[in-house]
Amino acid sequence: MTDGISLEKFSSFADLCDFTFIVNGKAFRVHRIVFAAQSPIFAKIITNNQNEAVIEDMNEDTFDEVKKYLYSGKVHVTDKNDRSLLTAGERFELKEIVAAVQLFRNCRMEPMKAKELEQLKIKFDEAKYLYKMTRDRYSTRNPFSQLPSRFY
């Protein structure tokens, strides 16, 4: 962002936080508006006129990653956290986290498959280029304008 402040920077203003999640004994101070605006489940939890909520069945690192996502729009999926992030994404109806985990899982493949995929991409790019050239060549108003002059 060039004008204003990003939500990621906003997350560093702990004194302006107005809600606390307690996850396995660890406190996470958050801004209600950030969480409620992005998840209907968080909205229900946060709008109950209390200042904190306890989440006992989630890993603190997973919740921290969800918090980072809600403030930055970025999620860091690894082999260690993909299962717990998928569960959290589904639980809190965070479709982007679910999609990121699914994409991460789909992209993990054996080297041979990766090589085959690269070859397929090259073929696809060549076909796309040929299609574009053909389309551009014959997309003028006069279909005969691209023919040599001896044909018309």
Automatic annotation (TrEMBL):
Q: Name one Pfam family in it.
A: BTB
Task: Give all residue intervals belonging to the BTB domain.
Answer: 17-79
**PANTHER family, A to Z:** BTB DOMAIN-CONTAINING PROTEIN-RELATED (PTHR24410:SF23), HL07962P-RELATED (PTHR24410)
Would you tell me the protein name for this molecule? BTB domain-containing protein
- Species per Swiss-Prot/TrEMBL record: Chironomus riparius
